[in-house]
Amino acid sequence: MDLATPTTARPPHIAQDEWALRQQLADCYHLVDFFGWTETIFNHISARLPGTDHYLVNPFGLNYDEVTPENLIKVDVDGRKVEPSPWDGNPAGFALHGAIHAAREDIHCVIHTHTTAVSAIALKRAGFGHDDFYGAQLTGRVAYHAFEGITLFADEKPRMLASLGQDKHVLVLRNHGIAVGEIDIPRTFFLLWTVQRAAEIQLAAGAIPGDNVALPHAISQRCADLTQQLIRGDDFADKFFAAMVRQMRSRRGAPR
């Protein structure tokens, strides 16, 4: 079977709700690839299975466009496979994703990237600004964690969680990249898109001579609050996610 072409039928051993989550998570991997935000076979996107301590994540060694609903692996918060699979996960992802899924009930999906724009902002002491349209939407939502090397070791988990806190949804991994998390896959992908746009605009503005027009904190906070009101709606993020999937499939010539 072509790894990039999932079967249309749900395997009998997978429940309907889990299959729907697997399909959506595979679409999310393909979108990150479509937008050029991948790091070859590295980085990870995870989705918690509701009502469990298990989450789905990509098989290590596959490109994002090779991820399918079938080949996603199921692991516990310590990264141990809970179902047989010929694939293993990326150990560098387990400490980050497992820690967040175990500690934050309001985060059911976590996406980790280090695109050029995001990594450049993570390198800067000031981090993300909040003066442009997208950066303003992140006001009060960004936390920072000091770089400790490749995220492999369990002893870093409590420090990452302390950095993230209980109310932030963007964790800037200093000198590295970001992790974003939300209640579901569409909302997490929308947050990732917002963070990526904020990083790109901040880099572009920084390359132009002259001062930026600073926004009062009250204005940027209002922008962030209004964005959250939209995102908390029933279908705002779902519509955005579905539209991006349609665009991806149309441009790649895949059936809708």
TrEMBL record:
It holds the Pfam family Aldolase_II. It comes from the Bacteria. Residues 23-203 form the Class II aldolase/adducin N-terminal domain. SMART domains: Aldolase_II. Belongs to the aldolase class II family. This is Class II aldolase/adducin family protein. It comes from Pseudaquabacterium rugosum.
